[in-house]
Design a protein that fits this description.
This protein has two domains: 197 residues, Quinone Oxidoreductase, Chain A, domain 1 (Alpha-Beta Complex), CATH 3.90.180; 123 residues, Rossmann fold, CATH 3.40.50.720. The chain is built from ten helices and 15 strands. Helix 8 links the parallel strand 12 and strand 13. The protein is 25% helix and 25% strand. By secondary structure, it is of the alpha/beta class.
Length: 343
């Protein structure tokens, strides 16, 4: 076996992608080495590329939508074995000792780590991951699909299953993109009356194919009016990070409805309190989830036939793949593959 591996790194904020060769790392106690088969490119990778994450140490290999196989296990690793298929997502581990961990809320650990930010991620042929970040991949789920489920998938799946909406209630997904095209599928499979909201009608056929019962073109019609014709949405999942568009949706909620925001716009929301007070409505954010949440996401997806729409690129085309994601041209997730596959 070669002692070297290929990786794509960023050496400074705003720097160019660097294709490098470095030593294959060895796992410490409580860690495993993952032979990466696929790694999705997420909008959050811009935090590394552009240096938006405070205190980030460079050089850094990004990537937190990782799918592969365990290659080597470190000391004191008992629940995972070499050859096992695993995913590694945004949640890169927790401390077990802070108050939130002691209460079992590992996602809110005050010392939580982020894959590809606190340690090198999946834009490489191999990576090291703590066992607390590992999710088992179902046997029948391809690696190139498993990768996007580790961030985009778990974010919307976990948000919806914890939203308080019940089967049969109206759930709207705002934005049919990397998160939204999965959100529509999950909402339909969870039994919600699913509404897709997007600017223009170019994605109507796709949204209905993915499972939407209703489609609202927010340019041609008033989204709030159309939602209220359905009795209002019990939940609106806002996946398009546009502060103005998100803020305008509050009046489309039903009484006790919730505007759930997993994709953060840079600008603040501008929301009147009166619709919230008078309708007992709420606005909330959502953090993706732990490795177990990611495992649940993949198992549900495999069971119900939820699939990400992906474009595959070899590592050597990382700059092109990142630009396709960053410009919004990709339909809908760019995935680096480590077997010479591309599409």
């Amino acid at each position: 076996m070669s002692t070297k591996m290929k990786a794509a790194q960023v050496s400074k904020p705003g720097g160019n992608w660097e294709l490098i060769e470095r030593d294959i790392p060895e796992p410490d106690a409580g860690q495993v080495r993952v032979k990466v088969e696929a790694c999705g490119i997420c909008h959050s990778d811009a935090l590394v590329k552009e240096g938006f994450w405070p205190g980030l140490q460079y050089p850094r290999v990004p990537g937190h939508e990782v799918a592969g196989q365990i290659d080597t296990v470190g000391d004191n690793v008992t629940a995972w074995i070499s050859g096992q298929r695993v995913g590694v997502g945004w949640h890169g581990g927790h401390c077990f000792v802070c108050e939130q961990c002691r209460r079992g809320d590992f996602a809110m650990c005050v010392n939580r780590k982020v894959t590809g930010i606190d340690f090198d991620g999946g834009y490489a042929e191999y990576m090291i991951a703590p066992v607390t970040a590992l999710a088992a991949i179902p046997d029948d789920l391809p690696a190139e699909e498993a990768g996007p489920f580790m961030c985009a998938g778990v974010t919307v799946y976990n948000a919806l299953r914890n939203s308080g909406a019940r089967a049969g209630e109206v759930v709207a997904v705002h934005g049919i993109g990397g998160l939204g095209h999965l959100g529509v599928q999950y909402a339909r499979q969870m039994g919600f009356e699913t509404v897709a909201i997007n600017r223009g009608n170019d994605k109507e056929a796709l949204a209905r194919k993915l499972g939407a019962h209703h489609y609202i073109d927010s340019i041609a019609t008033d989204a709030v009016t159309e939602l209220q014709k359905l009795g209002g949405a019990r939940v609106i999942l806002a996946t398009a990070p546009n502060a103005q568009a998100i803020s305008a949706l509050v009046d489309g909620l039903s009484p006790s409805g919730k505007l759930l925001v997993p994709a953060a716009p840079f600008e603040p929301l501008t929301i009147s309190m009166m619709p919230l007070i008078s309708g007992r409505r709420s606005v909330a954010g959502w953090y993706s989830g732990t490795a177990m949440d990611s495992q649940d996401t993949m198992e549900f997806s495999a069971l119900t036939g939820v699939h990400p729409m992906i474009e595959k690129y070899p590592l050597e085309r990382v700059a092109e793949a990142y630009e396709q994601m960053h410009s919004g041209k990709v339909r809908f997730r760019a995935v680096l593959t480590f077997g010479g596959e591309e599409s």
